[in-house]
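Could someone model manganese (II) ion with this protein?
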Amino acid sequence: MPSSTVEDYLKAIFQLSRKSTDGKRVALGAVSEQLGLTAGTVTTMMKHLQSEDFVSYEPRRGVTLRESGEKAALQVLRRHRLIEAFLVDIMKLDWADVHEEAEILEHAISDKLIQRIDEMLGHPSHDPHGDPIPTATGEMDNATFAALADVESGHYQLMRVSRDDSEYLKWLSSHSLHPGQALQLVSRDHFAGVITLKVADAEPIQIGETAAQALLVKKC
Amino acid sequence: MPSSTVEDYLKAIFQLSRKSTDGKRVALGAVSEQLGLTAGTVTTMMKHLQSEDFVSYEPRRGVTLRESGEKAALQVLRRHRLIEAFLVDIMKLDWADVHEEAEILEHAISDKLIQRIDEMLGHPSHDPHGDPIPTATGEMDNATFAALADVESGHYQLMRVSRDDSEYLKWLSSHSLHPGQALQLVSRDHFAGVITLKVADAEPIQIGETAAQALLVKKC
DNA sequence: ACCTCTACTTTGAGTAGTCAAACTAAATAA
DNA sequence: TTATTTAGTTTGACTACTCAAAGTAGAGGT
Ligand SMILES: [Mn+2]
Ligand SMILES: [Mn+2]
Ligand SMILES: [Mn+2]
Ligand SMILES: [Mn+2]
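Reply:
Sure, complex below.
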């Protein structure tokens, strides 16, 4: 069984590979950035992960997950997201706080317990941030959505929030911005980089492009 | 913060110190036995724990917990037992299976979440095995009970099961032997080392002295 | 074709935890 | 008292993970 360290590496590579331009290849710099480790540490680990058949690593070109690595990554992601859903729905913790907790628990919870949690929640398809939960066999919905930052005026539904930072999520909550919420992009000032939004029938709010980058929406 | 390794050492020392004849002093052999580590490993760790002010260690004489070590041990015990109670009462896992799970989760669950669990359970005083749960401030009920193996015929209440082994606990379950249960010691054969028991109005059962050693009872 | 900069790799070192095997203090037996 | 046994200690080695700092491959700029 992979250690929690290895699980975190595989998860990071998996997530970076989805955003990768170059096929599914991930640059080591992105990994070290994501995990907050030095470049040398990551190089060393990549050799190790390759020797364990988790990844395929070409020096100076990057890494891609091999089958067993992807499988392991999906299991970690499944545990992470089920745990988040559990903490919000059953334990009534704030969705802004559950990420950190899940980052640790994802390595500590047994298969038996994760199965129990899954049943208890009725096999949820998405976590509290709108991220899809892989099935026990490693299937994952790979729908993609446009960022609010890249979209024109109109009516949308918030599908997913792609940022973990707790303060940001708390701010979203305070404006009822959570997955599922309907909203209207009223107008945008491209030069100032500010977007005006209406959520339900509340007062319009202003939001910067960076903040809008993490709000993934569907036209409706 | 102590690592999970250190937490397990402190917990082991704490639990062994309660059974200690020589004050609260614990022999290193008992620690290595309990944790399944070699003697040398434990010696090395004791020096380290002393340097961190968790224990007081006298070579060849044993260790005792210092204040901060005892405090840490009680916190781990609290987490462990609350988690067990949670897994049984809320998650509906079998009491025979929760120990292993708790052994890991006790190091992974945050204070915030443990507090949530405690509230959700209504501040329970004992875990599913009848072990007392220390309070957040480190107070613990230290009531002691006689082992069924050491007691004469009569009516008793099962208060506590002092053994973790899952097969044993499953066997107890199958005879309705769980904390709180009333039972009658019908007779005992001191030479054969066999005790005859009646639980509620079921058929009498036979139980050996070793098995009866783990059943802690109160006269009633 | 050469230079430079960036991203990556290598090297050397350190922490935390562990074991096997050699050694020793001290309790117990003779 | 001396010898033996037991419990504990020391030593040397190993795995897993990490960093800082020195070194290098190769992409892009001139
Ligand atoms: Mn993690
Ligand atoms: Mn999430
Ligand atoms: Mn533990
Ligand atoms: Mn217990």
